[in-house]
Specification:
Neuraminidase, 3 domains
Amino acid sequence: MAGPWKTLTNTPSFSVDTMLLLTDGTVMCHEYETPNWHKLVPDAKGDYVKGTWHPMSPMVANAPLTQNGPVNAPLYYASAVLKDGRVFVAGGEYNGGVNLDLAAAEIYDPVADSWTSVPVPPGWANIGDAPSCVLPDGRLLLGSIKTKKTAIFHPATHTWTPGGIKNDTSSEEGWTLLPNDFILCPEVNNHPKAEKYKIKTNKWISAGSVPAANDLVLNAPVSIEIGPAILMPDDRVFCSGATGHTAIYKVSTGTWSGGPDFPIGSGGKLMRAFDAPACLLPNGRVLCMAGSVITSGVDAGWAGQPVSLFEFDGAVLHPVAGPANAATTVTFNCRFLLLPTGQVLYSNCTSKLQVFTPSGGPHHHWRPHITSVPKTLRHGHTYRLHGRQLNGLSQANAYGDDAQMATNYPLVRLKRVGSNKVFFCRTFDHSTMAVATGKKKHYTHFHVAHTIPVGHYELVVVANGIHSDHVKVHVKP
């Protein structure tokens, strides 16, 4: 198709909801309402449009899954790529098509291609569509949809400790990692209030209130919902609302201001980000989505059919071309994932995945910067790379409670000198998961697989679709 959208050459035989970028450059895609996951592998030139699909091990039976039998087939759940490169998945508003706010958790090891059941927070009967966020030190914060409690998961020991007590429940909320030791949360059940989690003290405190005229939360007959929130390179968080309004949070001052409204849709009402994705593009703009209010049929009260896309440039919402299936989809089914190429992978819970190519590129000072890396790399060995801004300036991808696909971690990519062939080295054990770390030096580890041919390469670090300047290296046996 013409324009900024391309359909994947190899259409999968299954429907995709959540997508996660693994640290070896492949994309881990969940098959809708099943235990199954599949891997999208880019072609030899790093092109995901021409990528191929490979099966992955399914999630394990997670006893006691007595609510709907011994199967973990979630829909709308917490998910994250951890600091060690493994993947955390917990909960599910639905399990195998049954609405029950599942209490289950598993970790995927991409090296062993295996899932391991892990405990849920002590005393929690439900996790469901809980929000989560990986903390800078690698622990993971999980919210309770039934109480004001939060819990902290320790990946090294598979154990939980209590998190801070919130001002409201975490139900339907989205969390945004900030660069100043906080996590921002516009409250849903106490809107338009907001709160933030101070990581060092394990406490939730007030973050003021969203301006009343720009309230982000809509209490609709079908549900109470909010849109996504994205940290931008200019120290502001752009928040899309299920109301059709947007709001902006200034990190350095802790203050709120109103943002632009979405356009009027069909029926004379503002288009709504009523459970919808957003993504920080390498050019610094936020790709976001809204839809007109649906007035009839099974999706009445939700938004979409069609969905409309916009780029927020810091002041104005600019309409952009929508995907091929925009006319027949709803916002809550859509997901965005920023790829290492700077493109955005899009799913609407069908098999019709597409890739969006934005215009423009990043400012040079947004790029990761390598300060040191070995120049000679040998097969089967692991190395440490040092640099600045290795995790990028933001988590980059957001949806809210139902799907978390943050990409604030470094990838290492090799491009063979004299050709367009690229190879990724799996990264793990990063020194931090913090965002927008500025001039501070950090590191990651990367492994050189035997499948990478011997030869001369240009090595770069990629974070949130933005690559560093290259360093010349030599891969030896």
